[in-house]
Model the fold of this input.
Amino acid sequence: MTLSLASLTLGTATLGNLFEAVGEGQAQAVLEAAWNCGIRSFDTAPHYGLGLSETRLGRFLRGMPMQDVKVSTKVGRLLRPNPGGPKRDPELFDVPGTLTRVWDFSDSGVRASLGESLDRMGLDRVHTLYLHDPEKAPNPDEARNTGLPALAVLRDERLVSRIGVGSMDEQALFAAAEHAGTDELMVAGRHTLIDHTAAARLLPACRASGVTVAATAVYNSGLLATVRPSGRFDYAQASPEMLARADRLADICIAHGTDLPTAALHYAALDPAVTSVVFGARTPAQVRENVERATATPEPALWEALQAEGLVPAVVA
Done:
């Protein structure tokens, strides 16, 4: 796929106060910037800020023309009252711990989760619904084996158009790719310029079965998000070895007339299985910057140079 505006999705974990709080005004400004840039695809989840991301997205979409809008969300974690809970959510989100997450991939749990998400967003359906991190559930096999059929029922009822799994875990994603009912996978951080885990067997399996891929976390939590790499990799501080590898990627990008984040965004779109690239933003300026990157296609010689040094696998045409 050639990256285009139509293939961009705004991921809204940041608007659920991932790592640090984002004010309501700023959150709405981020969504408005995305809309004004032409983005009509949005991804969210109950997990993101204990429902805050969904609530903010729904607040923005109310009154908007919805005929071309695609919203995806996720199931598997029900949000339930947490009396006497911690002052701050123990996960990565800067929100009060007034709710707790309860794993539930049962038929009733999946249906309840979707219903509660629709209520938070003020919608009557979503385009895509994913099982969220089934590998983290107390019984991962049961989560997948009950959750995917439950999603299929909701698809049959036209409450959703497409179903699949969203995860960072390659094994969980591969198992879903082999499931006959799967339409799409949200591959988080495993198909990026620096992490090629998905290239070995997951992406080939998706191409063979016709399962599409939404590539997300393409900056690997920030490591690839700046011209010179720094910060987190997969939600933790990047190791010196990972920083050194990213530095070499950045050098080669610059030598070929582009920069690291632009290359990271476009690299995720190169595989034919990928139909959407998901990015997050904390400010309106970051939205506009990512849209500009999407229109600045790197020269093919960049990928050849990266392959020659063994920094990326061979690109599949």
In short: Residues 5-220+267-281 form a domain with the TIM Barrel fold (CATH 3.20.20.100). The mean pLDDT is 96. The longest strand covers residues 160-167.
